[in-house]
Amino acid sequence: MQTTAMRGRGIVAVLLLGLSAFSLQAKTTLTLGAAQNSLGSLPLVIAQQKGFFADEGLQVDTVSFKGGAPAVQALAGGSVAACICAADHAVRLQNRHLGGRVLVALTEHHGYGLVALANNPAAQLSDLRGKNVGITSPGSLTDNTLRYYISEKGLNAERDFRLVGIGTGGPMRAAIESGAVQAGMLTTPDVQAALADPRFKLIQDFRTLQYPALDLVVVDRWLNAHRDEAQRLTRAVIKAEQVIQTDPVAVQAGVDKMYPRLSPALRKVLAEEAPKLLSHDGKMAPQGYQLMVKMLKVADPTLSAPDYSAITVPDLLSKG
């Protein structure tokens, strides 16, 4: 005969199962599109490791794309909720009347350096005049950056240089080593890996520039329909950014997760650089946005740049 106590335990078990099932059903899945696998994505990795997404009732999945252009195409088409890409894509989306917004800033600084072989006689960008110089792709952050600094030196990117789209990471390094390009743009962790090798040297370091090089970019259509999810996503990422500024052990664990094939020494270097590179509060710096607009206008003088307030979502950040 079933006792009262047994019946009570059964009811509790059924309730717990019901609550568990409800929790699983209530979890919202968000798919993000990643333009690159750089250190800028570390806040998302740590948010996952620390359970910050789960705390917000989110299941966050990431799909990798070969660069910003296809990732943004997926964003505009609605197949991903947000793009892990440069803020300049938000500007271009607004120019296409698609309402691009920077939901959360991931990086505080530009992540690229211009790298050449150590025996290359060039000591600065202008010394590469008339040579092949590697960019990731036309219209990319690397393209815009080099065009801006070439113009700052009174030179013309079309007339005086040959900017060649190579891609990222391994292909770019191979192009530099083979002489297909005299120098090329590398970002984390590839720039640190190259500079740890005495066969390479740095021609120009852009990593000290305040620049929104990697962010979570969304479009208004999704943001207006999913404001609660956007708020929860923002909150989880900002919490991870704060951890990066205060918890070196968590930072090292995140870097180890992202780059298991790199040497422990190089992973240690990346963990030390992460707090300097990354945003500490999710806010895109206005100065960085203005520099980005200047760079974009060199490549496309007809570009209409929205006001800073029109491309950010400050009310969600303030509630983070």
TrEMBL record:
Pfam families per the record? NMT1_2
User: What is one GO cellular-component annotation here?
Assistant: periplasmic space
Principal subcellular localization: periplasm
Name any Gene Ontology BP term.
Answer: alkanesulfonate transmembrane transport
- Signal peptide position in this chain? 1-26
Tell me where in or outside the cell this protein is found.
Periplasm
Q: Which family does it belong to?
A: Belongs to the bacterial solute-binding protein SsuA/TauA family.
Q: Which PANTHER family match?
A: ALIPHATIC SULFONATES-BINDING PROTEIN-RELATED, TAURINE-BINDING PERIPLASMIC PROTEIN
Keywords for this protein: Signal
**Superkingdom field:** Bacteria
| Annotated protein name in UniProt | NitT/TauT family transport system substrate-binding protein
- Origin species, per record, is Paramixta manurensis
